[in-house]
Amino acid sequence: MRLQDAERIYTVAEVNRLADGLLQEVVLWVEGEVSNLRIYPQYLFFSLSEEEAALPCVMFGDAAREASPVLREGMRVLAHGRLGIYVRRGQYRMNVHQVQEAGEGKLRREFFRLMRKLSAEGLFDESLKRPLPSYPEIIGLVTSLEGAAVRDVIINVTRRYPCCRILVRGVRVQGEEAVEDIISAIETFNRACPVDVLILARGGGSLEDLHPFNTEEVVRAIRGSSIPVITGVGHEPDLTLADLAADHRASTPTGAAEAAVPSSAEILALLRERSTSLEALLRRMLHLRERDLSLLASRRAFRDGEVFLGQARQRLAEGEALLQGGMREVLRRERERVEGRVTVLGRFPRQYRDLPRRIGDTYAKMRASFDSWWRWREREPGWRAEELRSCMSSLLSASSGKLELAASRLDALSPLAVLSRGYAIATRRGESKPLKDSREVTEGEAVDVRLHRGRLFCEVRGRELRGEGPGGESGW
Amino acid sequence: MTFGGIMRRLEEIAATLEKQDLELEEGLKLFEEGVSLVREARRRLTEAGARVEKLIGSLEEELTTEEFRLEEDNLAGD
User: Fold this and answer.
1) Across residues A318-345, what is the average pLDDT?
2) Beta carbons of A87 and A15 less than 8 angstroms apart
3) ipTM value for the complex
4) Taking each helix axis from N to C terminus, what angle separates A106-120 and A216-224, rounded to the nearest 10 degrees?
């Protein structure tokens, strides 16, 4: 091949063609991973890539038509071709004549192997997934401090749910050190910063970029976290083992933010509903009470004007019954005592006939004083049955004294008192009616004579008829 | 009280008020509590802004937090 002429000025196309000519000497096999695959009817483009280099490739004609149904993004292939330059753009590329799969890409093989292994262990089981808190107070965010992911999560969490706190732990999300960073961040939150929920986020990338999220260590760290974990890694179709292990998988960092916190718009709507329903419940309760009340008011007892005054009134009735019982007993005894005398006396002066009425008056006065005492007592909240009883007994003894006094006055006025002055009362044996006329008895009949102290049991030996002349039937 | 606590208490109050055998006075008390909780929840949702902090240091040494602000290029996008 002819070398460049130092004396000559070349055109751009000439330079590119020169370079193309030089490169075309190189024909070889190369192994790499297919990316940026674009398939057209007559040709196809892709890149062969590995960790730190990429080689643009192009295929034409039959070779392209054969390869297009086989090639897949991320596929590891062996390609055979000739290097060259695309003259129009000065772009370096390899013109591939033949391509064959080099088996699954190393990363993808590892991905599926690990997925099978960890899945068999049960690490992806639905039953292990924990519920996310409805209203988290603090959210832990594990992501790179640069880039879109941290921004997407913070902006969306803040917009949706401003009443929370976000604690960001910056980590590397790519490369060898990323695995260690992520594990350590999850551990740090679990041991030292018990947040309510953890978000593990990263922007989209190639299978290789996402590699840290496909490692066994990260999967185990997520599963070992006692704080629920939400993943938001990559773009929609990207799926990582971290996603499978997480308690909730969102397809993007924004999705993770939405899953982590409720939307304040929804809560505000819920609160509106809540306060409306509180009012409705209160209204219903008032309505029910009103109905109960009107039902109660329609009962006969209330319709007739009776008012329920409660236990105190009931106790009053009981106390009253007790008092009445006691009074009745006293009155009964007194009445018996008085009536016993009245019986003996037969007829008695007018004022004694008033006795029952006077006893009645005394009783009424006692009732009145008891009632007023009771009314006063009822206003006292802490009255006791014991006090009631002692008060009643003093009332009773007072009334008993009054009755005693009445009885002694009665005694003073009684015809029996006359006997103490030396008079006697004679009656036929077994009768109580005093004898007033000697004709009421016959000779030989038994007569009882009552003295001031004691009685005489006598027999009529003779009698004098009042108004008859001497020499008559004189028994004396 | 946490926000979650407020929301749970509101649920409880509504559930209690739904019971028919509640004393009127108790019902009124619950209603007042519910209304003030709704007010508090609204206030928190509308007044506060999320606090964003960066967790720095390590478990072995010392962990602290400092305020975290999104950089200009973070805000602007990629």
Assistant:
1) 64
2) no
3) 0.83
4) 30
Pairing status of strand A248-250 against strand A229-233: parallel
- Domain boundary assignment for chain A: 12-103, 126-262, 274-303, 311-417, 424-476
Contact at CB, B54 and A289, closer than 8 angstroms: no
Classified by CATH at the fold level, domain A12-103 comes out as OB fold (Dihydrolipoamide Acetyltransferase, E2P) (2.40.50)
Residue A312 Rama label (left phi>0; alpha psi -120 to 50; beta): alpha
Task: Tell me, rounded to whole angstroms, the distance of Cα A443 from its chain centroid.
Answer: 106
Q: Which CATH class is domain A126-262?
A: alpha beta
Reported as a single tens digit per residue, the pLDDT across A72-82 is: 898 888 899 99
Residues of chain A with Cβ-Cβ distance to B78 below 8 Å are 147-148
Contact partners, residue B45, CB within 8 Å, separation at least 6: A161, A162, A163, A264, A267, A268
The pTM for the full model equals: 0.51
Domain segments of chain B as ranges: 3-47
Asked if B28's CB is within 8 angstroms of A148's CB, the reply is: no
Give which of B20, B69, B74, B75 to mutate to test A binding, by max A Cβ within 10 Å: B74
Which whole-number Å values give the CA distances from A25 to A1, A85, A145, A201, in the listed order? 10, 12, 47, 47
